[in-house]
Specification:
The chain is about 30% helix and about 20% strand. It has about 325 residues and is α+β, with helices and mostly antiparallel strands. Among the domains are: about 50 residues, 2-Layer Sandwich (Uridine Diphospho-n-acetylenolpyruvylglucosamine Reductase, domain 2); about 110 residues, Enolase-like, domain 1. Bound molecules: flavin-adenine dinucleotide (FAD) and iron/sulfur cluster (SF4).
Length: about 325
């Protein structure tokens, strides 16, 4: 591991200024991803600006009835928060489905959003990788890709985003707030992660040097009947091979409102807009759920060794919608 400098920021403006003073500096949240990447040489910052003591560690109601979640709230505190569990249960479930208790107590909301892909070529500095070294190639396309993308990928990169939390946030139309040297800004999560295209090294639309300060969730009564389901290769302590965050509102047997987002299928959390379109206003039955899943997956372009994900995601969407409908009927 290379030598690096370390500074702890105590206020937001100071954190942004410290980072701006050094082009090779990085913000440090819980360090559960960044420090691992430093150990393997994927990340080589000259300086770390620790943001864990910034006053951004609260989960609060907004004036309009949504939630504001500070960037340094730990994943553990987020999942345990009573308002998160009551009003956005899929978010609490998604966070709890990730990592381990110890890691969740260290990991922050800001760091979770910005964690990097687990593609084995990305984390191995002896291999080419367009995301790590632009223009060097993507060995995953013809190589190991059983857990790579089936939606929205390009020949330049087929990696998936690893966050569970971000999938639930995508379903609930979260907005990311940030601070820069030029003032504050915000981005809907739907625009926060960039499409992969031919620039996989550009992952988010955050301006350079921006500090994520928090997330807001708009009020969403439908979210109270929501669920996150994650499929992984072993029962715990593993990243998703496919996941679904869904919320469903059914009245008189008809779908009145639905939120659906998919994880581990694309370079970013995938809002299932086609499925939502088929579901909205349709009879709440198995036929509709299957038609919605099929509509979403029409765009799937599996690689030779990850075609199983198309079937998996179809079954997962149908199963989660069926469970939510049964729960709503009780
Ligand atoms: C063994 C293991 C298993 C895991 N399993 C899962 C899993 O199943 N599901 C899952 O979703 N995740 C999983 N994770 C990932 C874990 O959730 C992330 O490592 C964690 O959320 C990152 O948060 P952090 O605060 O530690 O980020 P850090 O490692 O500190 O930072 C990550 C990145 O975010 C940047 N950053 C941090 N805070 C800010 C900020 N406020 N503004 C701007 N940039 C910032 C850093 O510069 C860095 O680039 C696992 C991790 C490990 C080690
Ligand atoms: S899939 Fe993306 S991250 Fe993985 S090797 Fe290819 S370019 Fe790199």
């Amino acid at each position: 591991m290379r030598e690096f400098g370390y500074q702890r920021a105590s206020d937001v403006a100071g954190a942004v200024a410290l980072l701006g003073a050094d082009p090779d500096a990085r913000f440090l949240g819980g360090g559960t991803n960044l420090v691992d990447l430093m150990k393997t040489g994927v990340e080589r910052p000259a300086r770390l600006v620790d943001v864990r003591e910034l006053p951004l560690d609260r989960v609060e109601m907004t004036a309009v009835g949504g939630l504001r979640i500070g960037a340094t709230v730990t994943n553990g505190d987020l999942a345990a928060h009573p308002e998160v569990r009551r009003r956005y249960p899929a978010l609490a479930q998604a966070v709890l489905a990730g990592a381990s208790g110890q890691l969740r107590n260290m990991a922050t909301v800001g760091g979770n959003l910005l964690q990097r892909t687990r593609c084995g070529y990305f984390t191995d500095v002896t291999k080419p990788c367009n995301k790590r070294v632009p223009g060097s190639g993507c060995p995953a396309v013809a190589g190991e890709h059983h857990n790579h993308a089936i939606l929205g990928a390009s020949d330049h990169c087929v990696a998936v985003h690893p966050s569970d939390m971000a999938v639930a946030l995508t379903a609930f139309d979260a907005v990311v707030h940030f601070e820069t040297a030029n003032g504050p800004g915000e981005l809907p999560l739907a625009e926060f992660y960039l499409p992969v295209a031919d620039t996989p090294h550009r992952e988010t639309a955050l301006p350079p040097g921006a500090l994520v300060t928090g997330i807001t969730l708009p009020p969403a009564p439908t979210a109270a009947n929501s669920r996150y389901r994650k499929v992984r290769e072993r029962a715990s302590y593993a990243f998703a091979i496919g996941s679904v965050a869904a919320a469903l509102d059914i009245r008189d047997g008809v779908v009145r409102d639905v939120r659906l987002a998919l994880g581990a299928v694309a370079s970013r959390p995938w809002r299932a807009v086609e499925a939502e379109r088929v579901l909205t206003g349709a009879p709440a039955d198995a036929e509709t759920y299957a038609a919605a899943a099929d509509a979403e997956l029409t765009a799937a372009r599996p690689l030779p060794h990850n075609g199983y994900k198309v079937t998996l995601m179809r079954n997962l969407m149908v199963a989660v919608l069926t469970e939510l409908a049964e729960e709503a009927a009780r």
